[in-house]
Predict the structure.
Amino acid sequence: MTIATINPVTNETIKTFEPMTKDDVMDAIGGAHTAFQKWRESTFDERKTFLQKFANLLRADADEYARMITLEMGKRICESQYEIEYCANIAEFYANGAEAFLADQQMNVNGANAYLCYQPLGVLLGVMPWNFPFYQVVRFATPNIMAGNTVMVKHASNVPQCAVAIEELFNDCGLPSGVYTNLFVSSEFVEAIISDSRVQGVSLTGSEPAGASVATVAGKNLKRSVLELGGNDPFIVLEDADLDHTIEQAVKGRIVNAGQSCVASKRFIVVKAVADKFMDGFKKQMESLKLGDPMDTDTTLSPLSSEDAAVTVQKQVQSAIDAGATVVLGGDRPDCDGAYFNPTILTNVTKDMPTFDQEIFGPVATVYVVEDEAEAIKLANDSSYGLGGSVFTADVERGRRVSEQVETGMMFINQPTQSQAELPFGGIKNSGYGRELSHLGILEFINEKLIHCGSK
Ligand code: NAP
């Protein structure tokens, strides 16, 4: 795959980058391995100084980085600006919290002195997607750097300028060489990197096929792995929900990042008693979205990340239509240049259609009408994915009860699935395993080492 910036607004190739050779990659692993020997001995205070500087530098040039994200993958400029600020927050969260998260833990064993200490594992590989080009890298890299690991990142091939900018930021904050390394390599190189004895683990955020491939190689080589994969998040609307709020959140939840978020709300499961009202309001608001240049602050729906992405969404939607789904809104691409897709609502998507159990990475909502709460939960769980989900109800206790029965890694009441530095993020089933963010995210690539002091 070519490593290149291709503007999804025009489909024009802006800049291409040379991939690294095998020797370059081996040198990079060597550099990360050497750096680990010293980095593991650094104090939390030293690490914290670097990461605080990283956050400051991000904020100082936030506009430049935001424009880079929008240029390379097309999201609205306000979303890119939010992403940069969020990255600075994550860096600060781990800079300030790591020492406490990794403090020795005394074990109570019959009066003997035993404790757990948390030690870094070594060189890690991150394989990252394009949809949040800064955030995905920062949520993997910053906890691991604070934990004393060294990290290498193979970023998605369509966001190379972001990949370079992140590496430069880490260099500019004074981080020793080899603690953070950008690898310009195609995915075919990933197996050789994971298999290298100097590499201790791999974290992949991306699609199921990529996850399965990386997990296979990690398994074969007995390396730790974390997988953050796709989602088909249910958005359950119960009959007592505040519909104005629910509809507003439904639109927001579906079109975040032009629909290209693993935790975007994707399946709208609405109890019959409020289905007509919900659909009426939802359609009106989806219809009023304004497609346009993502650099323009008036635009409310941006293009998808690439022409290929738009073609894929078109194929998924068309396959549902061909199989008998009803188009309530959109269903096609607008007549203009760029990777755009019209806001779309489908109903009558049934279990026999491939689309039923697929993740659609675009502004396409499927709406299902169910009799009651029990049927809503059953349908929500009828998915091979299990990432996030939400339930809308006036009764928070009821929301909790429903949330506990939905098979996902995260549930949100009266709001779409969200990500926050303090909260664990991750899924079950085909959405992957392991957790990122929060105190859990820093423990994934750690040796939780027991030290038991016996009496002489
Ligand atoms: P992708 O095609 O799987 O690519 C993700 C990364 O994996 C890229 O760096 C890609 O490299 C690499 N890759 C692809 N195939 C590979 C293989 N066989 N072996 C090793 N590496 C491989 O996914 P994407 O289209 O960029 O991202 C969208 C997917 O990511 C969606 O399914 C979305 O739900 C998921 N996602 C999940 C989360 C989460 O936290 N759960 C967050 C964001 C996105 P190239 O670019 O060079 O192909």
